[in-house]
Amino acid sequence: MDVLALRRGVVASLVALTALILAGPAAAATTTVECGLFRDYFAPDPLGPTTGSISFGLLGAPETIAADATLTPPADTNLASLTGGVPTALTVVRDAGVITSLSFATSCTLTDDVAFVDDLFGPGADGYVVGDRLVAPISLLDIHDGLSALIPTAAANGVPLTLIFSIDTSMGTPSAFDAQLTLVGEVELEGDGDILIGAARLPNSVISNQARGLLAEAAELGVEATVVVIGEGGPDAGSPGGVAMAISLDVSFEAPAPPPSEPTVPDTSMLGAAARPTPWLLGALLLLLGAGWVLGARIFSAGRYSAHE
């Protein structure tokens, strides 16, 4: 037996074992659901083999897709047509930072702040972003009161907007979505029927008679109102931007407490006057007593005279 070769083998094994101990256990694969838009998608090619890549959101860094990654149909064919535009939901499996699986998820939730961005879609084409996962052009919001009640209002009052997307997994596109935000502020009624809640403008067409009445009452009282804006929408070719949206408003406010009433002090002036005989009353009483004494004396004298007679 070659003792030297044996020693070398033992040393190599110890080095490998030490490296494994120092490295620790291998990181487990992680699964997340990415919600919203993605961009810069390049499909992997297992025959190349060539890795692919994808970036989530407007600002996300490119992520590597393994050449042999599993792309569950129809993600394998539809992802390229959705890049940079329609929001979707993707179930993403990552192993050591590399994407090993992509598939459409049935739903996802996006909650984030909304910001106005100049020239978002090009020179003079401004828009809004929700986090960095959803974009909306001003040109659409100007003609869509339902979306205007959700996106610009959240930006104006600096409150987060929550969107829940239901996904048609046969295509990867939204089949419906729900939205909600809460506005708090002083109420101002505008001449065109719009109503301001703080800095947020609610379009006239989305305000029900009941909500309008409550907001008018809050404005008259000069108190802040809390308005929960709830949206339910879905794709509709006949609506602006291809999106139908129904808006409902849940309005509440606290009426100001009435000012404390001053304690009532009883009027004792009449009681004092009644308790003290006035001079004219004393005079009248003395006259009555005097008249009674004279009358009594006369009767007594007449009685004595009659008896004497």
Task: Describe this protein with a few key phrases.
309 residues; alpha+beta; 16 strands; disordered N terminus; disordered C terminus
Question: Outline of this structure?
Answer:
The protein has 309 residues and is of the alpha+beta class.
Overall description:
There is one protein chain. By secondary structure, the protein is an alpha+beta fold. It has helices at 3-23, 75-82, 138-141, 145-148, 151-157, 209-221, 269-275, 279-308; strands spanning 30-36, 38-42, 52-56, 63-71, 88-95, 98-104, 107-112, 114-117, 127-130, 134-137, 161-168, 173-189, 195-197, 200-202, 224-235, 243-253. A hairpin with a 6-residue loop joins β3 (52-56) and β4. The protein is elongated, with a radius of gyration of 44 Å. The protein starts with a helix and ends with a helix. Mean pLDDT is 85; it is low at 3-7, 9-21, 284-289, 291-297 and 299-309.
Portion in strands: 35-45%
Biggest sheet layout: 7 strands, antiparallel
The average pLDDT value, as a whole number, equals 85
Question: Percent helix among the residues?
Answer: 25-40%
Q: Say how many strands there are.
A: 16
Q: What is the approximate shape?
A: elongated
Topology (SSEs and partners):
Layout: H1 3-23, E1 30-36, E2 38-42, E3 52-56, E4 63-71, H2 75-82, E5 88-95, E6 98-104, E7 107-112, E8 114-117, E9 127-130, E10 134-137, H3 138-141, H4 145-148, H5 151-157, E11 161-168, E12 173-189, E13 195-197, E14 200-202, H6 209-221, E15 224-235, E16 243-253, H7 269-275, H8 279-308
Parallel strand pairs: 4-6
Antiparallel strand pairs: 1-5, 2-3, 3-4, 5-6, 7-11, 8-9, 9-10, 11-12, 12-13, 12-15, 13-14, 15-16
